[in-house]
Amino acid sequence: ALYYYLVVIKVMFVDRGQADDQPVPVGQPMAWALGLSTLGVLLLGTFFATPLFDWAASAAKQLF
C-alpha cells in the first residue's frame, strides 16, 4: 500500500508536464462565483459563526 501512495505522490509533484505550467483560464461568471463563495465563507466563519452555532446547538438539543 505504501508503494501505491508513493507513486501517487510522485505523479502529483515530480512528473509534471508542460500543460501544468499554463495558467487556468477563468471566465467572468466563474470569477463572480468564486468571489461570492469566498465572501460567504468569510462572513459565515467570522461574523455569523456564533448565531449559526447556537442554531445548530438548539436543533441538536431537540433531537435528544
Automatic annotation (TrEMBL):
The keyword Transmembrane applies. Keywords: Membrane, Transmembrane, Transmembrane helix. The chain crosses the membrane at residues 30-53. This is NADH-quinone oxidoreductase subunit N. It comes from Candidatus Thermofonsia Clade 1 bacterium.
